[in-house]
Amino acid sequence: MQETSWALEIAKIFPTTIISLGVGYIAYMQWKTAHTKVIIDLFDKRLAIYEAVLEAVTLSNIDDGTGKQLQKSHSMLFRARSDATFLFGEDVASIITEIIKCVSLQRRNERRLDRDLTEDARERLANELELSANRQDKLARDFQTMCLPFMQIITKKIRSPAEWVRDKNAARWRYADEVQLRQRRE
User: Fold this and answer.
1) Of the candidates 135, 136, 111, the residue with the CA atom closest to the CA atom of residue 125
2) Predicted model pTM
3) Which of 6, 12, 20, 99 has its CA 20 to 30 A from that of 35?
4) Neighbours of 121 (CB within 10 A)
5) What is the pLDDT of residues 73-118, one digit of tens each?
6) Level-2 CATH architecture, domain 2-155
7) How large is the greatest C-alpha to C-alpha distance in the chain, in angstroms?
């Protein structure tokens, strides 16, 4: 009788163990999916800021003279800077701040050019506009370079238990092959 009760107890343990392993595997795979989703969401938010800044720079470079595109560019850059502080860090946000300064200078000088000015004043403002545009282009390239590491989706390869066993088995076979090769050489 004593042996039957031990066998019965062991038989009771197997189903619960198998079920708990299955539940653990499902929980692990759900965590893996949620983790990947968070990484992709972060990438999407960063990409939106990246595209907004580049669109704002493009708008400011092709202004039609009314100033509306410069104004739109200015507001897009302000929104992007506040978001970039949290998603990219201070370095990228400071570059956006410098781009905002260039666009502000461009807006101010374009409004001044509409006034009646002397030829020397117009030439000086035109030179300032050109320098500001060149600086803005350089800052846009720096912005792209600084954002590049953030714009890659790098997910850590989290292997499932089956993949882990397969990799370990392959490593075991490679080791066995190396041992056999060494033995043949000796």
Assistant:
1) 111
2) 0.68
3) 20
4) 13
5) 888 998 999 889 888 888 999 999 999 998 888 888 877 777 777 8
6) Up-down Bundle (1.20)
7) 114
